[in-house]
Amino acid sequence: MTLYTEEEIRVNERLSIRNGNFATVGISIVSNFSALYVLSALHANSQEVALLNALPALMAIIATWIGAVWMSSLASKKNFCVRASVVARAFYFILAFIPFVIHGAILTLVVVLLIALMNFPQSFATLSWQSLIGDLIPEQRRARFFGLRNRLTTIVGMLSTLIPGIILQLFPVTSIPPYQAFFTIAFLASIFEIYYLILHTERQANRPKRRLAFVLTPGMFLAFFRKSVYRKFLIGALLFNLGWQMAWPLFNIYQIKDAGATAIWVSLFTVANQLSQILTFTLWGKISTRLGNSITFGIACFGMAVSPVLTVLSTNLVYLVVLNLLTGMFVGGVTMLQFNHLLQVTSKAQRTAYIAHFNILLGLVGFIAPEIGVLFLSLFHMDGAMGIASVVRAAGGFFFIFVVANVGRKAKAALT
């Protein structure tokens, strides 16, 4: 293993924080305002909103499968990450430029497809960055480093959501140029993001170029289901995520079309949700230590299960901000505990393969769920569709508390 000096580690940490801050500016602008852009400015229909949520997940599935193979043979993770990031961030400029050359109804579909395609190189960039930073930052420094980095990027993310929301409020909701301007700002921020990524110090071991060391074949993919503890976790997690993600396009449609949310309100929804997540991460860790990860995750799932049915009770925008503030703490619990649980039920030797396996299946759910949500919207209207999403989320929570937690207790008993 190639070792880094103390000075090189400190420099890499500073560069990674700067890289993360500039990356967050672009990601926050594009991800948080895409739905408002296609719904209000481009007049997207429900199916196009569903595709906006579904197609990026499909791109992530393909990229994760390929990346799990490709990453095992890389000589330089940094160079690969730089190239993938350059391609991904070029889509910001394309999104800003495309309204000059394409007009009318086709523009909406093109924008949705561009956002989906952007997630292909972005998934490569994320995979390679995670692997790279694991090499650059020693294990004993990671908790402090990631704690600081996540706090700073979260603050930057909130500002990058709130400020554009305030400025977009000054323009008509159907105006396209303001979005083009912010996509351009996202692209300019990405130049600094990639610059600081290039400056990272990566030492490459002197070894011959390897062939692909890991191939995720269909047979290997199916073999992962044989581990009972992982299989039970997988069933519960995918069930909950089905209910979670089928409501994503419904929330966008309800908040923007039904409640009439403008850019500033969309910003406030996001900031309120993120703020409560930050404030409750430590609390979820304490509850998990006391009750166990499975039961705590189930509680967080139940908390998120009430969000869809509570949302459709009112179109009052202040009410929706408060609701996002309250439900955000359960989102924080789910985000943290789901990954912790995945690590808990996988062996260290095969952890990377299991993570790829889980992410592929999660991406498949992410591709299917929004389409199911929009289908239920057409069949049962908004109240019925949101109610079904709540029931499915609650079923996932029930599964974790009464099935997965029980499996965990039996496994511990068998070891004693």
Describe the structure.
Helices cover 82% and strands 0% of the residues. The chain is mostly helical. It has 2 domains: 1-202, Up-down Bundle (Growth Hormone, Chain: A); 216-416, MFS general substrate transporter like domains (Growth Hormone, Chain: A). The chain starts with 5 loop residues before the first helix and ends with a helix.
In short:
This protein is 82% helix and 0% strand.
Name the features.
Growth Hormone, Chain: A; mainly alpha; 416 residues; single chain; 82% helix
Low-confidence stretches: 411-416
Broad structural category: mainly alpha
Give the terminus-to-terminus CA distance.
36 Å
Largest sheet: none
Rg: 22 Å
Q: Kindly estimate the percentage of residues that lie in beta strands according to DSSP.
A: under 5%
Mean pLDDT: 86
**Overall structural domain count:** 2
Task: Explain the layout of strands and helices.
Elements lengths: L5 H36 L4 H25 L6 H21 L8 H31 L2 H30 L8 H22 L19 H6 L4 H19 L1 H11 L4 H29 L1 H19 L5 H28 L6 H65 L1
Helix pairs in contact: 1-4, 1-5, 1-6, 1-9, 2-4, 2-9, 2-13, 3-4, 3-6, 5-10, 8-13, 9-13, 10-11, 10-12, 11-12, 11-13
